Each structure stands twice: as C-alpha cells, then as structure tokens.
C-alpha cells in the first residue's frame, strides 16, 4: 500500500512505544498520555468525518476554523483535523468579531470552533458565512465539541492524503490591508518538522536514550507554537509542559524539569527581568531557541552571562515555516548574535538585487527562498500569489538581508530590514496599512501613518501619527478607544500623536522614516 502523505501518519509513526507515557503535563497537575492524545483526536476526527463534508469543486478539502484558548484538547482538535483530512485554520484569540467575520467569509469553513463564552456572538457570523457546524471548546474540557465527539470510537483510520494536499491555512496580515491565507500542505509541514528534528538535536537526544521535555509557553494559533514547537515535541516523542500562556515566573518554575524552550525575544527579556533566572534552574536545559522577531545582541549576551546558555536564533515565517537557523551542533561560538544562521538542509535561500542578480557577500538585498517547506500560495488570491513568487519559483520573503559581511561567515544570513511595511510587536505581525484603514475611517480623521517604534518589552510597538480635521479634530484617546472596540488589542497603537500634516517626499509618499526618527524615544528613552 502507498504510504499516506498525511502529516498525522508521520506523527503517529513517531509516538513512543509506551503509549501510557506522559505526553502533556499541565500546570494544574493533569497528565495526558500518548494514548489519551490518540484516542481524543480519534473521537473528534470520528465526529468530523461523520459530517460528510467533501472537497470543493476546485479540489480544496473542507476547512475547520478554530479560535480557542490553548489546551491539550485544542491539540487533539488540531490532530483530529489532520486525521479527518480537513484543512486547519487557526485564529488568534485576540481577534474581535469584525476580524473573525473577514476570515470566515474568506475561508468559508465547514466547521467553526470557538470559545464557549464567544459562541453567542460569533455563531451568527459563522452561519452567515455559510458554516454548517458551529461548536465550542473551552480550556476546562468544556464545550459542545467534546460532548459531540464523546460518542465516537477512540480508534480512527486516518484519511489518506497526498503530500501536496492542503493541511492548514495560516492568515498573515496583508500589506494592502487584507489578510491573506497562506496555504501549507502536509508535505510543507512534515518536511520542516523532520528537518528540525535533526537540526536541533531532538533525534540525537532520542537515539542517545535521553528524554527531551519541551517547555511550551507559546500560543498555538501561529506557526511558532503550532508547527515549530508542537511538531518538534510530537516527532521527538517528547513530553511537553504545556503552559496556557507565557508567564515568566511560571516558566522559571518549570525550567528545572525541562530540556528545550522556544520563545519570541519578549519572552527572553521578561525572563531576564526575573531574579529567579539563573544557571541552577537551567541545569537540565540543552537548548533555548528564539524566533518570530529580531533578538537584540544585548539580550543574547545577557542571557548567556546569566544562564550559561547561548540562545539559538532562527528565522521563519507563516509562508515558509522555518528556513534558516543558527546551528545546534558545534560550539556555542557557532551561534552568532545578530545573524539568523544558515539555510536549513533542503532549503535554498538567496539574496538578490532589485534586478534579480545575486548579491555579493556582505551586500544587502532581498531575501528569497525555495524548498519543500515553502507554501503553494495564498488562499484564493492567485494575483497576490503570483506577485510574491519570482518566475523561477522563489518566494519573496519581504525581508532584506545579507550573507556574511562584518567578518561573519559567508554562509550566515543577517536580516537588516524589510521591504514590506511591517511591524513586529512581541512576535505578532502588524501591517500598518490595515490599521491606517481603520483610523482613516474614524470621524474627524483626514489621514494617518502607522509606524513601529523601539519598545523595551515588545521590541517594536505600534504607534500612529494622525492628521485631524481642523474644525473637528479627534482626540488621541478617542481614537484608541474606538480602535479597541474593533480590532485585536495588540494591533491598537500604544501612542497616538495629532499633527497638522505628514512629511512627504517629492513623489507625495509619506516619509515614515522621518516619523520613526521624530518619535524614536517615545517608549525607549535614548
Ligand atoms: C499582548 N498585548 C500586546 C502583545 N501581546 N501588545 C502588543 N504586542 C503584543 N505582542 C497586549 C494585549 O492586547 C493586552 O492589551 C495586554 O497586552 C495584555 O494582554 P496579555 O495577553 O496579558 O499580554 P501578555 O501576556 O503580556 O502577552 C505578551 C506576549 C504575547 C509577548 C506574551 O504577545 C505572546 O505570547 N507573543 C508571542 C507571539 C507569537 O507566538 N508569535 C509567533 C508568530 S509565528 P489590553 O489593552 O487589552 O490590556 C511567526 C513565524 C516565526 O512569526 O518565525 O515564528
């Protein structure tokens, strides 16, 4: 029989022989075994399969959109979606109704699962978007989904899928203001998970008889927490200490029982702010990984001094999962601050000039990527997809960088900026264009410019410079209040300034660089 390309088949093949072994530990003392994970996901997959949802006319598998709090049952739901052949669409728990409405109308899911307390608000939106089944799942093993799944068998024959079949759609905010769904296949996810298993030493640890324990503190609605951290643990057959959210003290309390930790730079700066972080609590750790935003060399150095551990920085994005990483094997000196490391095995990365020719060592250009990890395109946006790929099949990441330079090895990539206007706040991507659209629609606003400014906690924070109507100007507090009623709070500017006009160049383009200079020290004093 041909081997299924379903990612779950790979995950299942790696589960420890001892199915009673612990797979997930929660802070409230619950322990889920691998057997629990398999049976729980089988029951939900059984329920999903019983709905009889087929593919769309264009061959797209049915979608399941999910906006739930982090819990072991949410992991089961993700695995169940893979097993039943659905494409999984995770949604940030911070999204408000208008944002959810957009995603549901764009992705047209057959099933929508949300938190029990949001069911009354979101169910009508989902129904209007043509969604036949709206269920709830809480973080205390509550909600209608588990009730519905309870009567299904705890065995399920995973639906065979080809490697190129769609496994997940991850929404990334759009440069034009409209979010785009990055389509990831079973092969994209499986190839990346296999590569990381080797590259970050999980395999070596396993084969040497070690027992990795992943301290999982990331949200599971983004690539980092879902596909990088979760897949790493599942493929390694490693236990996870599963924290519902990042809390620096809770992480420090769990570190002595852990071997691997993954986080965004904000996690590391917050850990460093705690006295309890020292070499002793890290004594069983073998690896700290950072990604999703630039890690400042100060943080890298301070962490090394305090804990004796050298953070491994890597580079990824929703469209490509992981593409470049500092090495795990070798000496600590091989992990170089200010670089994101070398292309992962099987992944090709190039830095090119505007005319497409390759840059020299140390020369800054556009970073492009090709490989089995790279997504196939944006959900039902063929023009956008075409724009983001070169004719010879390389994906334009939108990041600017260089190989080598400043005495660094020429195989190491450093990122130095972005060609797309993007803010990364605490590891969340925020596209100024989207926020400007909301601000410009407010009464009394003539126009606005949204910028990212250095911030001690979030790395960058969202801020807005607004030109108001001279006769009836808006108040900055009023703008913030109105935005908070409409969009996820992490996207709402932390500061708003009213100005008479925005600086423009001779072409009429707003000079955001001048605004970033003018307000540079607003959050982070010089
Ligand atoms: C929360 N808030 C933020 C924020 N997170 N504001 C700006 N930026 C952020 N990142 C705001 C909330 O809106 C809220 O505002 C207030 O802070 C408190 O909310 P909270 O949920 O209690 O916040 P906190 O626990 O402090 O969260 C901060 C954080 C979190 C850093 C722990 O943002 C986080 O876990 N970030 C990780 C993001 C992540 O996983 N990124 C991976 C993307 S994948 P108010 O006004 O309501 O009080 C990717 C690809 C790759 O990029 O390579 O990995």
What is this structure, in a nutshell?
The chain is of the alpha/beta class and 526 residues long. A hairpin with a 5-residue loop joins strand 1 and strand 2 (31-33).
Class of the domain at 33-160, according to the CATH hierarchy? Answer: Alpha Beta
Q: Strand portion, in percent?
A: 25-35%
Low-confidence stretches: none
Give the proportion of residues in helices.
25-40%
Instruction: Kindly report the spatial arrangement of strands forming the biggest sheet.
Output: 2-1-10-9-11-12-13-14-15
Your description of this structure?
By secondary structure, the chain is an alpha/beta fold. Among the domains are: 33-160, Rossmann fold (3-Layer(aba) Sandwich), CATH 3.40.50; 312-418, Luciferase, domain 3 (Roll), CATH 2.30.38; 423-518, 2-Layer Sandwich (GMP Synthetase, Chain A, domain 3). Helix content is 29%, strand content 25%. The strands form six sheets. It has a nine-stranded mixed beta sheet. The model has no long low-confidence stretch (mean pLDDT 96). Bound molecules: malonyl-coenzyme A (MLC). Residues 94, 218-219, 222-225, 245-246, 264, 266, 291-292, 316-318, 425-428, 458, 489-490 line the site of malonyl-coenzyme A (MLC).
């Amino acid at each position: 029989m041909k081997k299924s390309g379903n990612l779950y088949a790979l995950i299942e093949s790696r589960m420890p022989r001892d199915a009673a072994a612990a797979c997930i530990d929660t802070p409230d003392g619950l322990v889920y075994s691998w057997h629990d994970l398999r049976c729980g996901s089988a029951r939900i997959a059984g329920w999903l399969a019983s709905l009889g949802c087929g593919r769309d006319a264009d061959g797209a598998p049915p979608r399941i959109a999910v906006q739930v709090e982090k819990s072991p049952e949410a992991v089961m739901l993700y695995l169940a979606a893979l097993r039943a052949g659905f494409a999984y669409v995770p949604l940030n728990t911070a999204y408000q109704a208008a944002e959810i409405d957009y995603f549901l109308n764009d992705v047209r899911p057959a099933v929508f699962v949300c938190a029990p307390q949001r069911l009354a608000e979101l169910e009508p939106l989902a129904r209007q978007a043509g969604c036949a089944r709206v269920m709830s799942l809480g973080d205390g093993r509550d909600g209608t989904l588990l009730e519905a799944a309870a009567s299904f068998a705890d065995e399920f024959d995973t639906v065979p899928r080809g490697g190129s079949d769609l496994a997940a759609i991850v929404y990334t905010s759009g440069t034009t203001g409209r979010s785009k769904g990055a389509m990831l296949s079973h092969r994209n996810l499986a190839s990346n998970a296999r590569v990381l298993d080797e590259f970050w030493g999980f395999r070596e640890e396993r084969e040497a008889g070690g027992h990795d324990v992943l301290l999982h503190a990331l949200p599971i609605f983004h690539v980092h927490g879902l596909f990088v951290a979760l897949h790493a643990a599942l493929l390694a057959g490693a236990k996870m200490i599963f924290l519902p959210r990042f809390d620096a003290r809770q992480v420090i309390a769990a570190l002595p029982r852990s071997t691997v930790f993954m986080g965004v730079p904000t996690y590391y700066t917050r850990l460093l702010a705690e006295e309890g972080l020292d070499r002793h609590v890290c004594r069983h750790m073998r690896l700290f990984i950072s990604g999703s935003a630039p890690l400042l060399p100060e943080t890298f150095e301070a962490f090394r001094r305090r804990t004796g551990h050298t953070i491994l920085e890597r580079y990824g994005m929703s469209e490509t999962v992981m593409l470049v990483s500092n090495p795990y094997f070798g000496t600590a000196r091989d992990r170089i601050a200010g670089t994101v490391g070398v292309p992962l095995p099987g992944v090709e990365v190039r830095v090119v000039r505007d005319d497409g020719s390759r840059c020299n060592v140390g020369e800054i250009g556009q970073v492009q990527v090709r490989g089995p990890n790279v997504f196939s395109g944006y959900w039902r946006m063929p023009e956008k997809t075409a724009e983001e790929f070169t004719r010879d099949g390389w994906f334009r990441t939108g990041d600017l960088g260089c190989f080598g330079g400043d005495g660094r090895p020429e195989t190491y990539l450093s990122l130095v900026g972005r060609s797309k206007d993007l803010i990364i706040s605490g590891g969340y991507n925020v596209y100024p264009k989207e926020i400007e659209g909301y601000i410009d629609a407010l009464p009394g606003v003539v126009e606005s410019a949204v910028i990212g400014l250095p911030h001690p906690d979030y790395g960058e924070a969202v801020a807005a410079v607004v030109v108001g109507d001279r006769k009836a100007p808006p108040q900055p507090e009023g703008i913030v209040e109105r935005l908070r009623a409409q969009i996820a709070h992490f996207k709402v500017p932390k500061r708003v300034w009213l100005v008479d006009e925005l600086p423009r160049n001779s072409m009429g383009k707003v000079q955001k660089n001048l605004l970033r200079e003018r307000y540079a020290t607003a959050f982070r004093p010089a």
